[in-house]
Design a protein that fits this description.
Layout (H helix, E strand, L loop, with lengths): L1 E3 L2 E2 L11 H11 L4 E3 L2 H23 L3 E2 L12 E3 L5 E3 L5 H10 L5 E2 L1 H17 L1 H7 L4 E2 L11 E4 L8 E5 L12 E6 L5 E3 L3 E3 L1 H9 L11 E8 L2 H8 L24 H18 L4
Parallel strand pairs: 1-3, 4-7
Antiparallel strand pairs: 1-2, 5-6, 6-8, 9-14, 10-11, 10-14, 11-12, 12-13
Helix pairs in contact: 1-2, 2-4, 2-7, 3-4, 4-5
């Protein structure tokens, strides 16, 4: 159900029948959860960003970037410094928008694992939603590693079985082969046609992705992979509000600590768990800070 300023919203004819926006609105209407917005502009921005997430996922699928473990990550040295942990650190003299666009333009120069792929998709979709000028003000410095993200992306994990196009879901593979730990699971973008995009697997139905993961179980393993109820989403409302700020807006913020867990293909909520553990240790070791 959708509400605009506390009132039910039913003007689904604002978007053409069969459009991605119309599909998203219909999925929202089918959910028991109330999707509440302060204005039609907030809703329209979320629909635009979700549509761009889907477009960015499809574009990555059509590119030539490889799936690799952190130790074998690759990036274009013209835009990024490759860290010892396998992360991509934006070079000081490079615009964030240029570096993100290069991952798509020169995709054959890049290799990364599936969690990093999803954050790249988010950045690319946000760039296409808010434009280069604002993107470059918001997202410097930029660092790509697993689910590490800039605070203004506001990525968070929720529990739900009602997925919307543009969501990122997680397929868990409990009996993965420990010698090929990158098959522990798959982060995947929900597309508008009931398929999913996972970096390293490609586009397929839930059944096809589960079958692919089941082929990578440890010897003797018989527990099937499955689609979890863990969903990652950016903060659509925060980004919508930022997109409407005056031209001179400057964002002063503290970046999140980088958590180099070296675990490939983990879910967003697992990364957030590790991040919270780090902050809890800091708090307990400095109780009066």
């Amino acid at each position: 159900m959708i509400q605009i300023f506390g009132m039910p919203f039913q003007q689904t004819d604002m978007w053409p029948s069969g459009s991605i926006e119309r599909v998203i609105v219909q999925r929202m209407d089918e959910d028991q959860v109330v999707y509440s917005y302060q204005s039609i502009g907030e809703l329209s921005f979320e629909l635009k960003l979700r549509k761009n997430i889907i477009a960015s996922a499809r574009a990555m699928n059509e590119g030539h970037s490889d799936f690799e473990v952190f130790e074998k990550s690759r990036c274009n040295p013209q835009y990024w410094n490759l860290t010892s942990s396998g992360g991509f650190q934006l070079k000081r003299d490079v615009m964030p928008s240029d570096a993100i666009q290069d991952i798509y333009k020169n995709s054959s120069l890049y290799a990364f694992e599936c969690a990093t792929a999803k954050v790249i998709i988010y950045y690319h979709a946000v760039l296409n939603s808010i434009g280069e000028r604002l993107f470059n003000r918001l997202f410097r410095p930029l660092y790509l590693y697993s689910w590490h993200f800039d605070p203004d992306l506001g990525i968070h994990a929720i529990k739900t079985k009602h997925f919307l196009p543009g969501d990122i879901v997680y397929f868990n593979n409990p009996d993965f082969n420990p010698e090929a730990s990158w098959w522990r699971g798959e982060n995947a973008v929900v597309l508008e046609d009931d398929t999913y995009f996972g970096h390293g697997i490609g586009i397929g139905t839930a059944e096809q992705i589960i079958d692919a993961l089941n082929q990578k179980r440890k010897q003797g393993g018989n527990e099937s992979a499955y689609l979890t109820n863990s969903v990652a989403r950016p903060s659509f409302k925060h980004l919508a509000n930022i997109s409407m700020l005056p031209r001179g807006y400057r964002d002063y913020k503290i970046q999140y600590i980088k958590v180099h867990h070296n675990e490939i293909s983990i879910s967003c909520d697992r990364h957030l768990f590790y991040l919270n553990e780090v902050y809890n240790r800091i708090t307990y070791s400095n109780p009066f800070s």
